[in-house]
Design a protein that fits this description.
Elements lengths: L1 E2 L3 H6 L1 H13 L15 H5 L3 H17 L4 E4 L2 H15 L6 E4 H10 L4 E2 L6 E4 L3 H5 L4 H10 L3 E2 L17 H4 L1 H17 L4 E4 L2 H11 L4 E4 H5 L3 E2 L1
Parallel strand pairs: 1-2, 2-3, 5-6, 5-7, 7-8
Antiparallel strand pairs: 4-9
Helix pairs in contact: 6-8, 10-11
Length: 233
């Protein structure tokens, strides 16, 4: 199993990578981290640079095969979507590596009775990342985890399939930062309307954008940060 942090986590939020690795060790998942790994290619695919995307996919395939990788676990929904949906399109039958989002691994272990949580006395609301929700149709796993952590889980007005974007996807944050800011601020306002203590997401890009827009009016955490001190294995 490869733990793949993704570029956003690796370069912008390295503290998340440390927490993911510690939790995976607690879960007794035998994993490795490959330092020379490349970007998954999501940004160039969003830019319709199919040649560079295929080149990255082929490089990663060779690298993963050289390390004997059979499964990828990531906390980045964009990377998860790329490995699960897009690599099979360009690499065809050569790509036989399973891709899983961290929340799915954790929810599965909860179903098997292998993971529990010490509950926290704070209210929590959840922002659905576009790549995890709309693209991969994964809405249940993060909520299963959050409802196990707190009795005070509240949904925003726009959640699930109609969730508002954080504003950072599709290259918008790099090319149109003012638009990103407007969207992120609108999403934070929806979170504030719930009166929740904590706004949680399961995507490093969403974490980054929402934290920047929150102006510390609400605590913004990645799901791994929320469970870090409460998980019981």
């Amino acid at each position: 199993t490869l733990y793949y942090p993704g570029c956003m986590t690796r370069y912008k939020l390295p503290e998340l990578q440390e927490k993911y690795e510690e939790i995976l060790r607690k879960l007794q998942i035998d994993f490795m981290v490959v330092e020379e790994v490349n970007c998954c290619g999501s940004p160039v695919l969003n830019a319709s640079d199919l040649i560079t995307f295929k080149d990255l996919a082929e490089k990663n395939l060779r690298l993963f095969k050289n390390h004997g990788i059979r499964r990828i676990v990531t906390g980045c929904p964009a990377c998860y979507r790329i490995f699960a949906n897009e690599y099979p399109k360009v690499l065809k039958d050569e790509w036989d590596i399973k891709s899983t989002h961290f929340t799915q691994i954790l929810a599965d272990l909860m179903d098997k009775g292998k993971v529990k949580f010490n509950r926290i006395d704070k209210s929590v609301t959840y922002h659905d990342p576009c790549h995890l929700g709309r693209h991969m149709n994964e809405y249940k796993a993060p909520r299963k985890i959050l409802k196990a952590v707190t009795d005070k889980f509240v949904e925003m007005e726009m959640s699930g399939e109609i969730s508002l974007c954080c504003g950072g996807g599709g290259g918008v944050s790099s090319n149109f930062p003012e638009i990103t800011g407007d969207i992120s601020e609108a999403r934070v306002l929806q979170a504030l309307d719930t009166k929740a203590d904590i706004l949680v997401s399961a995507c490093p890009m969403c974490d980054y954008q929402l934290a920047a827009a929150s102006a510390k009016k609400i605590e913004v955490l990645d799901i791994v940060e929320l469970i870090y001190d409460s998980i019981v294995v």
